[in-house]
Design brief:
The chain has 6 helices and 9 strands. By secondary structure, it is of the alpha+beta class. The protein has a single domain, classed as 2-Layer Sandwich (Alpha-Beta Plaits), CATH 3.30.70.20. It has a 3-stranded mixed sheet. A two-stranded antiparallel sheet has the order 2-3.
Length: about 200
C-alpha cells in the first residue's frame, strides 16, 4: 500500500507544533529538522499576503535523491514507496541534498547543542544519527515498531491541518478540495498534497 499526506493550508496557523513534535520524537541533532514551517510573503502592497507552508519530505514517486545517490543509501521501499535513508551506507556527499527541490534533507554535523559534549539525552537520541551522514523525514516508520508509518506531526497538529493515509484517499481529498502538490513542474510526483486557502 502506498501512503500520502494532505496539509490543509486553510487550517494551518504556523504554530510549529509539528516541528517540535517531530524533533522531540525523532531526537534529531542541531540543524536537522525533518518537519518545518516556512513563512514567506507573496505579492505587493496592497495585495500582499503572508504564506505559511509546512514542509517535509514529499516522498516523490520519481525521487531525484534516489537517482543521484552513488552508494544506494537512499532508496524507495518496495512495499509502500516511502523514501528512506540507510545512514550507515551514506558517505555524506550531499548529492541528494542538491537534487531535492524541496530542501527536505539535512546533513548531520558532529556534536550537540552544548560545547562540552553530548548530554545524556543526546547520547541516547543521536544513537541512530551518525555524523557526516544525511537525514530526512521517513513518515515515522520506526515509531510503530513494525515499520508501518505513524507520523507524529499529524498527532501533534492542534488545528487538524494534517491528514495521513492511503495515497489514493489523500489524492482524492486533494482533488475534491482543489488541492495540488508543491513545485508541480519539478516532475517528481510528490505524495504530499496541499489544500489551498479559500
Amino acid at each position: 500500500m502506498a501512503y500520502g499526506f494532505v496539509i490543509d493550508l486553510e487550517k494551518c496557523v504556523g504554530c510549529h507544533g509539528c516541528s517540535v513534535a517531530c524533533k522531540g520524537s525523532n531526537g534529531t541533532p542541531p540543524g536537522v529538522t525533518r518537519s518545518k514551517v516556512v513563512r514567506s510573503s507573496e505579492g505587493s502592497y496592497p495585495d500582499a499576503k503572508r504564506v505559511i507552508r509546512p514542509m517535509l519530505c514529499m516522498m516523490c514517486e520519481n525521487p531525484p535523491c534516489v537517482a543521484v545517490c552513488p552508494v544506494e543509501a537512499t532508496y524507495a521501499r518496495e512495499e509502500d514507496g516511502i523514501v528512506v535513508m540507510d545512514k550507515e551506507k551514506c558517505i555524506g556527499c550531499k548529492l541528494c541534498m542538491d537534487a531535492c527541490p524541496y530542501e527536505a534533507r539535512y546533513y548531520i554535523e558532529e556534536g550537540g547543542y552544548f560545547e562540552d559534549g553530548l548530554n545524556e539525552y543526546e547520547e541516547l537520541a543521536y544513537a541512530d544519527m551518525p555524523a557526516k551522514a544525511v537525514d530526512k523525514c521517513d513518515f515515522c516508520i520506526q515509531h510503530s515498531g513494525g515499520g508501518t508509518p505513524d507520523p507524529v506531526c499529524v498527532k501533534a497538529c492542534m488545528a487538524e491541518a494534517r491528514h495521513f493515509g492511503e495515497l489514493e484517499d489523500m489524492r482524492r481529498m486533494a482533488q475534491e478540495r482543489g488541492g495540488d502538490v508543491y513545485l508541480k513542474d519539478a516532475g517528481t510526483g510528490p505524495r504530499v498534497f496541499y489544500l489551498p486557502v479559500v
